[in-house]
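User: Second chain of the day. Same drill as before.
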Amino acid sequence: MVDWTVALGILLVAVLWIQIFVDYRRKLVRIMPSVNQVTNRKEEISTQITEAESEVETIRMSIGEMHSEVKKLEEKRVELQEKLNPLEMVRVPAGRLRMGTNTPGLDDENPEHVVHLSEFYIDPYEVTNLEYKEFIEATGHRSPSDWRNRTFTDATRANHPVINVSWEDAKAYCDWAGKRLPTEAEWERAALNDGRYDYPWGRSCNPDMANYDNPDGKTTPVDKFPKNELGVYDMCGNVGEWVNDWYDKLYYRDCPDTDPKGPDSGFQRVHRGGGFHENRNGVRGKTRNFAMPQASNDYLGFRCAMDVSD
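Assistant: Same format as last time:
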């Protein structure tokens, strides 16, 4: 009787294990397609990753080639710009300049002193909105505060001087153009020739010769008024022009007599010429003005200069 009971128990356990095995096989059969799908999907993804990595490498090589091409084009632009600059600029001959004045009360212009300047090039016109737009499009440099969407808002002002540019902006443009800002002495030489008179056109102020005494007005085209005897336009009036020098009220008292370049350091930069809002005294060719290098205003612009290298 005991043996029969044990045999029956063994049989029942065997049947139970057979049932468990059958259920496992059924589940395995159901799971296998999913496992195969996962395996296939894994292989597909691995293939896509390999293809993507290959494409990334191809793109990286293309970007490198494009960077190289851009560099070559920029080098070519610089080469062509260097050849073009002298053709577009006024060559100011070497000469002497009676710089400053002995007029009492104009302390930073005192004393009048003679300086000798080497020849140099200077732009005949102030840098225009259109020229500055080309610069910011090529370099990504910030645009003036009065522009919208990185362009000037009035198409009729394309040939007006660019305004709302700081000394730092002006220098960045000059560097890009293969030029530089003029020194204060070079600016005065280009404006007044030998410095005998206070204005580019003579002894007295003349509203037919410049845009000034117009506080509610605006800038005018850079070629609206007559050029001076050296062939340079708008040296006085329209907009004041940044020059390279640091400002020092007492600099004229002890400056070099040959090619002075201004103080070695300072806090403010000089701008010359006066803007449309100035009166006749403000647009004198000998008047000195100054501002922080980061400052900008709607009456401040600039023009470029360049060394004579031949």
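The longest helix spans residues 2-88.

User: Great, on to the next one.
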